Protein: S-adenosyl-L-methionine-dependent methyltransferase
Organism: Jimgerdemannia flammicorona
Amino acid sequence: MIGGLATPGTSSHQPFHAGILHWKGQKCKPVKYAEILNWLPSTLNAHVRAHVKSCIKLTESIPKGRRMRQSQLHGWRYIKSPRSSHSSTETTSTETKPIYHQFTSMGNGKSRFLIHDNQEEVNRLHYQHEMLRQLVHGNYNAPVEDAFEKGGIKVLDVACGAGSWTLDMASTYASCQFVGTDISDNLLPKSGLPPNCEFLQADTLKGLPFADNTFDYVYQRMLGYSCSETEWNIVIAELIRVTKPGGWIELLEIDMAYERPGPSFEPLLKAVKAACDARGIFLGAHKRFPYYFGSFENVHLDALTIPFGWNGPIGQECAQNHRLAWLAMDHRLAPAMGLSREAYRQLVIKSVQEFAEYKTWLRLPYVYGMKPQKGN
Ligand SMILES: C[S@@+](CC[C@H](N)C(=O)[O-])C[C@H]1O[C@@H](n2cnc3c(N)ncnc32)[C@H](O)[C@@H]1O
């Protein structure tokens, strides 16, 4: 048990050597958590070191659901950073490389999400997925590994975006059925899908197009920046409705409380919070995880941490993803801040450059739990 409740079916936690994986084109090499501490910069103060230590959970005992499968390790892919077309002044030596599919349609999305649903966002979401898979040490935390291995289960990825998680999981677990839904048809994959996987355009707020109690496992990652507090309640009710009794729901969200933001990032953070406020977007969903899962059993709450621009390759990847996401909000935030697009972009680039110096990081809270067998 890592805190919270014990995970059923995983009473004996087997030793697991895990940690931030080498992945830049090299063979993946699982490492011990203890080793990660040795990699931290020597300049890191004791407080931060203690925090990192608690966050990475200095233990060799990880519940089975968090284990990265060998097939995932062997199938690890290095994804080149998508090049942003936002700025001519920034330097990236890599090129755009759509990963899973060809994008087939463009148009206006209907969500309040602050980033356009275009090809650039598709690429960024795939890139972000690979980054998150490292941070999670796999694709999920709930103790559903045995069910996936056994096969035959139905899985739903809600607000799946470009379908990165669904496609990855469907390729890994060929005998399970996967469905991804998103409000934006533009983001959804259209071709080259594994046979056990489909995508549907669906606004969760209007009701998911599935009967009650359909899915064994329902996953939703980073819906944030999209819904009001009331809408979040509707979303959660929908997720619960379509989950089978005894099935699992897992959510992962961003906590916008950046720790140690540098001076250039502070006005940007203020601007994005103001933009969300103006749209009625609720940024506190993670704080309501215990409420959302109030009727559930075996609830487990925890958080991942993201270092930006420090703590080795993963920090570089997180900073790059952050930079792309914030550049992609220029059409919304530059006017709100009274800046030209170019001035806004320069501020984003400078803020990301400061991250390493200030050791900026944030939390990605997650929760999973089991829908009770008898009613809910
Ligand atoms: C940050 S993206 C996350 C995508 C995906 N879950 C991932 O982790 O790669 C947020 C997604 O939520 C979708 N979204 C926003 N409001 C939605 C709604 N009401 N119903 C379904 N999807 C929605 C957006 O279109 C966008 O694809």
Summary: Confidence is low (pLDDT under 50) at residues 1-109. The pocket of S-adenosylmethionine is lined by residues 109, 111, 113, 117, 125, 129, 159-161, 164-165, 182-184, 187, 203-205, 221-223, 226 (CB under 6 Å).
